[in-house]
Design a protein that fits this description.
By secondary structure, this protein is of the alpha/beta class. The chain is built from eight helices and five strands, in the order βαβααβααβααβα. The longest helix has 25 residues, at 58-82.
Length: 210
Amino acid sequence: MPFITLEGIEGSGKSTQMRLLQEAYGDRLLLTQEPGGTPLGVAIRSILLDRRHHAMTSTTELLLYLADRAQHVESLLRPALAEGRTVVSDRYLETTFAYQGYGRGIPAETIRSLGRVATGGLTPDLIVLLEVPVETGLARVGKRGAHDRLESEVREFHERVAAGYRRLAAEDPGRWQIIDGTLPSPHIHEHIVAEAERRGLMPARPHGVR
C-alpha cells in the first residue's frame, strides 16, 4: 500500500505540510514521524534532540535513529500498510543518509547495510523533498525559540545535509519529487497532493476539499 515520506533540512516546512494533510484528509491518512512515531520512539527522540547530549558520538546517534526506525517499521508502518492505509511519514531512511551520511561523514554503505536491518527492506513509493536555502531554514528555526541539538549545529553541517539531499534526489529521480519550500504553504500542499495523486498513492479527497 502507498508509503510517502517528506524530507528536508531544518525549517523546510515539513511539519506545516503534515498539518495541512491532516486537515485535508483526517483519518484517511496515517501521519507519523521519525524519530518519535511510537511510544518507544518518543523516548529515543527526547535523547537525540536534547542539547545536554552534545557529546553524543556520530555512531551513537546513527544507532539511536535506526533503533527508532526499527520499532517504527515493525509496530506501526508495516501493520498500517498491511491494512491498506496510506502512510505519510515526516522523515525516514533518507534522513539518515543526509544527516548521518553527508552531515556526519558516516560511510553510505554502513548506513545502507544497517538500514536494511532496521527497515526490513521497506522503502517509500514517493519521497518529497521540500527544498529551501539553508539560511531560510535556519531563520525559520530561529523564530521558534530554543533550538534542539540538531538545530544547534553549525551552518556548515546544515549545508552538507542540504547538498546530500540534492545528491540523493539526483541518484533516484523516479522516487523523489523536489518542491520549492519557499512557496506559500497552500501551494506546496497542492503540489504534494497532485504528485501523490498522479502516482496513484493518495486516497480520494473528502467531499468538498480541493
